[in-house]
């Protein structure tokens, strides 16, 4: 089933971590398996934030577990330095998830590949403002674990997952970062039926995938179209023609948030547009979790693409 | 929020966390009309309070303030009464009802009034998809727009929509009527068995085996009557769509013939 949510403030920075947690928690029944966030904070000049994991939440805790994580983390630091990045800050978020702030001007693909070459390492996101946080459990659990309550930002998307197409683990959780393009992420509710076709097609043009989850191709697909010159809205418009299946997905870039719905309107979406905020979610109850008064909302129709600039 | 044991319930969108809850007994009753604020009540408490008032207290009119788009509110009410929701409902609002007259001042989510047996529901704003799914009787009036597949598997009653309707409206409809004043999405009346759909606006495309029908006096009378009852003003001009009955061949055989075939 899955639940998705998105929020974009029109008047600058707000408590986006807190708001997104409330939205996602109210839709827990749509997917209790895992929860994920793509939050956009304030960018700093020349700095990128990298979030990565060195084990999955399900990885067995054998006697060597801690040593292995430490060893791999040392390798991450070594390889980042070798790639020419200056490490400004390293924060261990959980026993296996890290957030690193880097000063780096080089190729992000090269940097990501160097990190992902380390056994069990997985880069969740790299961006000037994008940070992807995902883990097992409901929104409050993940928010508490990663201290998202104080996250200030301009826009965000989130996802509560009911696993249907692949395993319950962090790599199967949304949102997906559009490796290797910085600051693009996607959450998706639905199933894609031409997944393998697109996966092979995108792999042939040099992309690789972090997971077995069908939703990941949307992120990479959009990033590929945007790297060819399309803007977010144009890329999403093309996806309606080229992706098969049922879907409502929300895509975000550093300064825009867009939503697309398939030709059958099979998956829900409720949209609320106000002067100060645009919020959208699978259920109105999620929007009401952050807006405490009666609001006017509607369900966009089949085959729509809408985007908002920050 | 109610307490269960030591643990505070922070989440209960579907009203499943407290199967043994009691009606909160918070309504103010004045001149046979009850009012209560649902803001801090759970789904289950709101429904229990509604039932207590309608079935035990014998109240004939209830106003629910701040429903807050919660799911499954006002379901399974089987008595003649009046219910006003001052705000929006979530999914499955007012499903399985038989008798009440319900007024919703906000919006409703997916599957509002599904399996409605009789009564009247008036929604002032928009409705989600699957509105009036498998409805069997009564009138459902949506003053805003509706999502996709309104009246899917409809078996009776009337759905009136003043705004636009989405794709596959009247999908597999079996009986009953829909009056859609705005534009309608693709696949109107797809695989419908019977019933009538009136459309005031543009139809993006007709579904399989849905064809334009022949207009007669009874259609005019029916539409005018419904518009009069709900005070909707003068009806616009409508076109009529019915089932082409080309998909009926599975049941054309006489019982004796069917025996032969089987």
What key attributes describe this structure?
heterodimer, A: Glutamine Phosphoribosylpyrophosphate, subunit 1, domain 1, Alpha-Beta Plaits, six-stranded antiparallel beta sheet, five-stranded antiparallel beta sheet, 8 helices, 15 strands, 27% helix, B: 262 residues, two-stranded antiparallel ribbon, 3 helices, 13% helix, 24% strand, globular, disordered N terminus
Uncertain stretches of chain B = 1-6
* Total helical segments of chain B: 3
**Fraction of helical residues of chain A:** 25-40%
Alpha-beta classification of chain A: alpha+beta
Please provide a written account of the structure.
The complex is a heterodimer of chains A (310) and B (262). In chain A, the strands form 3 sheets. A 6-stranded antiparallel β-sheet of chain A has the order 7-2-8-1-14-13. Chain A has helices at 16-25, 65-82, 108-116, 139-146, 195-204, 216-227, 232-242, 284-288, and strands spanning 3-9, 34-40, 47-53, 86-92, 97-103, 122-127, 130-136, 155-161, 176-177, 185-192, 245-252, 256-261, 270-273, 277-281, 305-309. Chain A starts with a strand and ends with a strand. Chain A is globular and about 50 Å long. The model of chain A has no long low-confidence stretch (mean pLDDT 94). Chain A folds into 2 domains: 3-41 and 132-309, Aminohydrolase, N-terminal nucleophile (Ntn) domain (Glutamine Phosphoribosylpyrophosphate, subunit 1, domain 1); 44-128, Ribosomal protein S6/Translation elongation factor EF1B (Alpha-Beta Plaits). By secondary structure, chain A is of the alpha+beta class. Chain B is an alpha/beta fold and 262 residues long. Chain B has a single domain (23-261), classed as Pectate Lyase C-like (3 Solenoid), CATH 2.160.20. Chain B has helices at 43-56, 217-229, 255-261, and strands at residues 3-4, 7-8, 28-30, 33-37, 61-65, 82-86, 98-104, 118-123, 139-142, 155-161, 175-180, 196-199, 210-212, 239-243. The longest helix of chain B is centred in the N-terminal third of the chain and has 14 residues, at 43-56. The A-B interface holds A 25-29, 138, 140, 263-266, 268, 270, 283-285, 287-288, 294-299, 301-302 and B 10-11, 13-14, 66, 68-71, 86-88, 90-91, 105-107, 109-110, 125-126, 128-129, 144-145, 147-149, 164, 166-168, 185-186.
